[in-house]
Specification:
Distance between the termini: 42 Å
CATH architecture of the largest domain: 2-Layer Sandwich
Shape: elongated
Order of helices and strands: HHEEHEEHEEHEEHHHEEHEHHEE
Strand order of the largest sheet: 4-3-7-8-10-9
Number of helices: 11
Number of strands: 13
Helix content: 25-40%
Low-confidence stretches: 1-7
CATH class of the largest domain: Alpha Beta
Number of domains: 2
Radius of gyration: 22 Å
């Protein structure tokens, strides 16, 4: 079943494949919910199976094997031309794909260090933010599009790109503000909610932002006609900035300032100042407002 131009995809539609098994889902329910068995009645209650029509698309997505593209994770080097590692999790339960992706994230963005007499775990990127962003992609993506969720891993950030635009009736502003009133995949969302992978419908963006509350550099969200992208940067604070960059950052305020104002404070030439401002913008520390003579800059809000 694939989405047409005028028909919005629904995870309640009959699945193309009806020869399905649910061993991974069963083990997950046993581990997290204490459900001893996954009977046909349970599948019906969860809307993974419909009397008369069989398994739903949501059922196939959660089955041990399915026909859907999954998650493509690439660890890049200094640029996108250098691939250090690539793993693809697809055509299996999206719950399994989710867990495998979390393990791969932990490999590169978490480490342990002995501090005093104790071993402590440190995160370069908050695990809560990565979990929320990945769950958001799985729950809200358009599964009718034959494409993978892309997870690009860099030294300074992770980019998670979900195929398709927002569901009909959900604006970009409502999405970014966490006002999720339109669920493209309500059955999948309900399963993720039951398993406590997502806390509450519509709170994912705010939870991502909360996990960066102590970081100067903040996540970025991009919504286009063909995809939704979430960028999770390495956690940083003002102490990470040095030299001229720190001087420019310290000169910025929460209210927008013109280039001429910043030149007076820093003593830098216009060309040098603009170069430093652009670097701060690229790192997520500053925001550019307006164009031409009306251009102003301010600190990125936490």
């Amino acid at each position: 079943m694939r989405e047409t131009k005028n028909l919005e995809f629904k995870d309640s539609l009959p699945a193309p494949d009806q020869d399905l098994s649910f061993e991974f889902l069963k083990r997950t329910f046993q581990r997290d919910l204490g459900i001893s068995d996954l009977t046909r009645d349970t599948l019906i209650t969860l809307n993974l199976y419909e009397q008369g029509s069989g398994y739903t698309i949501a059922g196939e997505l959660l089955a041990d094997q399915n026909t859907f593209r999954g998650i493509d994770m690439v660890r890049f080097g200094s640029d996108i031309n250098t691939m250090r590692e690539r793993v693809i999790y697809e055509k299996e339960s999206i719950l399994r794909e989710y867990e495998e992706s979390i393990t791969k994230y932990q490999q590169y963005y978490q480490y342990e260090q002995v501090v005093g007499a104790y071993r402590q775990k440190f995160e370069l990127i908050p695990e809560d933010a990565f979990r929320e962003a990945l769950a958001n992609a799985l729950v809200h993506r358009n599964w009718a599009i034959n494409a993978q969720i892309k997870v690009a891993m860099f030294d300074d950030r992770i980019e998670i790109t979900s195929p398709g635009n927002l569901p009909q009736g959900l604006s970009k502003e409502s999405y970014l503000n966490g006002e999720i009133s339109v669920l493209r995949n309500p059955i999948i969302a309900n399963i993720f909610f039951r398993l406590k992978i997502i806390e509450q419908f519509g709170t994912g963006i705010q939870r991502i932002l909360t996990s960066y509350s102590d970081s100067t550099i903040q996540p970025q969200f991009s919504v286009s006609e063909n995809s939704v992208k979430i960028i999770l940067p390495i956690i940083q604070n003002e102490a990470s900035l040095t030299g001229d960059l720190k001087l420019v950052y310290d000169s910025l305020q929460s209210i927008p300032l013109a280039t001429s104002d910043l030149m007076q404070v820093t003593g830098f030439s216009r060309s040098k100042l603009v170069k430093l401002l652009n670097e701060l913008i690229a790192q997520g520390y500053a925001v550019k407002l307006g164009r031409g003579r009306g251009t102003k800059y301010c600190r990125a809000q936490k």
